[in-house]
Amino acid sequence: MPGKKQIKTDDPVHISTYWKLVWRQFSQHKLALIGGVIFVFLILFTIIGPYFVPHKYEDMNFMAIFAPPLTEQHPMGTNELGQDTLVRVMYGGRISLMVGFVAAGLSVSIGTTIGLLSGYFGGNVDRILMRLVDVMLSIPMFPVLLTLTLVFGSGLRNVILVLTLFGWMGVSRLVRGTVLSLRETEYVMAARALGAKNSGIIMRHIFPNVLPIIIVSATLNISFAILAESSLSYLGLGIQPPTPSWGNMLQNSLNYMLGTAHGVSPWWLTFFPGFLIFLTVLNINFLGDGLRDALDPKVMKK
Amino acid sequence: MKKYLIRRLLEVIPILLFISILIFVILNAMPGDALLQMRMENPRAFANDPAALEKLRVHYGLDQPVYVRYGVWLGKMLQGDLGYSSTYRVPVLNLLQSRIPNTLLLTITAWLIGLIVALPIGIYSAIKKYSAFDFLATGFAFVGISLPHFWFALMAIIVFSVQLGWLPISGMSSYGVTGTWEIFIDRFRHLILPACILGFVQVAYWVRYIRTSLIEVMNMDYIRTAYSKGITRKKVIFKHALKNALIPIITILALDIPYFFGGAVIVETVFSWPGMGRLMYQAVLGSDHNLAINCLIFLALITLLSNLMADFLYAFVDPRIRYN
């Protein structure tokens, strides 16, 4: 690891809790820190941003269709209806980020539950659940994702549903693996000897120890969901216009990519939404990478 | 080990059956069927004769419950009868036969490009870890992982085809090209962009894997022993380290094959490449159930076989692994 320093844990004055150590480790990871800051900025950009732009996402202006970027009033140009790309990108970001957060939250919750049950109880429960994971993983994901959105109908709720359905397997495998080893630790055995209930042991002793894995998985699942939503919207199966999302803005741009009636190729319609997807996912990945290192207690003990 | 291989092979059958049931049920829950499409294409023929519609429904077996239809479909399929495509109006088998080679051409080229690019970058950044090159390669890997396939494809089309005009925008061949050599060049020009884009995303993952795996091996005791015997650095890396580092990588190369086919759906759609991915997308969109089912089963089979291949390769390459 670049720039990793040893952390003094035997400092008599300074008492370090786990989370303090995590923060110290994380703040040394420059790239992750920058990634986190940009990610927060992107969230603010999409939530607060529209209040600073004098347009609404549905406002049309036929006097200014296909205005290139940096024209007056339209820093990112306009589309075929004269709608401001900047404000549409902000609204689209709200949708895309929401899909990412909600789908990741749901799939990580399901994955964690299944992983905890499977790892803790073992035996037949484990065998059946892990078989299920194996089968789910051998289904060609993207084609089935596509089919499912078509069956359920596209739209925000169904996109989230489908992404959740296909996002939990990785998490459950990771959690199960950790729980398997935690189950044999002395403190869990001690708790059991004291007569603690299974639910109590799982929640109080095991769950806090798998939390780091869950957090890292959650960040990676957000980026997976954002990418998948954009792909589905791009194929016309995700969020439906007029609600803008980064994916369907890209799909719309396709109609004009090879040149409009005026003979210009409005590259900005393709560039900006895609670039924001890229920027978001990139920074989430940086953040996830930093968190993975920071949350790993093995690294800290060194 | 033979026993293990046979058991793993047999395991594919129930999983494939399960997936086919799943796909069959999902597609049947989809709105629209072959009849609806016929009615839409030819509204007048059915308007006066509702009985004809009912007759067709019975003829195609659409009046039967799902499980009966599944049984009929499975029986036919096992005899090699894949049925007709309702949109293309030709046997599905013919369609698959003409499209599968195109997809294989695209995915295998992409896979090879990925390997040829990822291997040297991964190895070099592991040898020179924490160097400027390594940081650059890591950055490059992060960028590759975060790029949406289709946006990257679109931007590449805008830059290389629309603005610069170097490469064709889409399709697999130009019209009216003759001569073996000219056709080969033409194919190649059409193949470059989609294959590079499909390969590039995987390069990013592979560079990371190769780097991590090689660094891990380089810390082993036997590498230190090799050095202490006075063997040159080059020999240590290529004869001792790389051999062991490549074991997990071979597995990943096989495990990632399905991603190429999944990515091919998007890339083929963007570039209008006449392959399986685009065929599947169109079949699903056009409620061509029979075609869609067969495409999806094909992709599932590819996924299962790649997983199997990864396991076999792993057992084959690494003598330390014993199966009972």
Task: Write a brief structural summary.
With 302 residues, chain A is mainly α. Chain A is built from 12 helices and no strands.
Topology (SSEs and partners):
The complex is a heterodimer of chains A (302) and B (324).
Chain A lengths: L17 H11 L1 H18 L37 H37 L1 H15 L3 H12 L3 H10 L3 H14 L3 H8 L4 H37 L11 H8 L13 H29 L1 H5 L1
Helix pairs in contact in A: 1-11, 2-3, 2-11, 3-4, 3-6, 3-7, 3-9, 3-11, 4-7, 5-6, 7-9, 8-9, 9-10, 9-11, 10-11
Chain B lengths: L1 H27 L5 H8 L1 H5 L2 H10 L6 H13 L13 H36 L4 H15 L2 H15 L16 H39 L2 H8 L4 H23 L1 H15 L4 H10 L3 H29 L7
Helix pairs in contact in B: 1-14, 6-7, 6-9, 6-12, 7-9, 8-9, 8-12, 9-11, 9-12, 10-11, 11-14, 12-13, 12-14, 13-14
Structural account:
The complex is a heterodimer of chains A (302) and B (324). Chain A is built from twelve helices and no strands. Chain A is mainly α. In chain A, helix 3 (85-121) packs parallel to helix 7 (169-182) and helix 8 (186-193) packs across helix 9. The two termini of chain A are 13 Å apart. Chain B is mainly α and 324 residues long. Chain B is built from 14 helices and no strands. In chain B, helix 6 runs antiparallel to helix 7, helix 10 (221-228) runs antiparallel to helix 11 and helix 12 (257-271) runs antiparallel to helix 14 (289-317). The N and C termini of chain B lie close together (6 Å). Chains A and B meet through helix 5, helix 9 and helix 11 of A and helix 1, helix 7, helix 8, helix 12 and helix 13 of B.
User: How many angstroms separate the termini of chain B?
Assistant: 6 Å
Strand elements of chain B, count: 0
Order of helical and strand elements of chain A: HHHHHHHHHHHH
Rg of chain A computed from alpha carbons, rounded to a whole number of angstroms: 23 Å
Hey, which two chains have the biggest interface?
A-B, 41 and 50 residues
The first-to-last residue Cα distance of chain A is: 13 Å
Average pLDDT rating of chain A: 78
Helix content of chain A: 55-70%
Structural class of chain B: mainly alpha
Largest sheet of chain B, described in full?
Answer: none
| Unreliable segments of 5+ consecutive residues of chain A | none
The coarse silhouette of chain B is globular
